[in-house]
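Fig. S4 source data, part A: sequence.
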Amino acid sequence: MASGIKGSSKPSGGTPTYATTALFTATATTTLILSVCNQSAAADTVKIAVIPASESASSGAIGTQHYIEFDFSLGANTAYERTGITMESGARLIVGSGAGSLSFVAYGLES
């Protein structure tokens, strides 16, 4: 069982697509905690999608059914944690920020 940081990113602003580099791609069943930090003096919006391994798309808009957060407003200079994100092998975690002021860190346990 591998544990620890699985990925970190500070994506540019805008809605992510299937072509956006995944913050994390599971190589085994994985349970994650995702930490989001707003590094700005203004609110920004959070976008988090969990793409199942069965979804093979690599371009275009992410299907709305895959979002677990979409345009959630995160206050200025604050942080948020999303716990219990469970992913099967091959699933992708893709994140985005409305204005590009958010950093994301995923950590957890692969089984």
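Fig. S4 source data, part B ends here. The CA atoms of residues 51 and 92 lie 5 Å apart.
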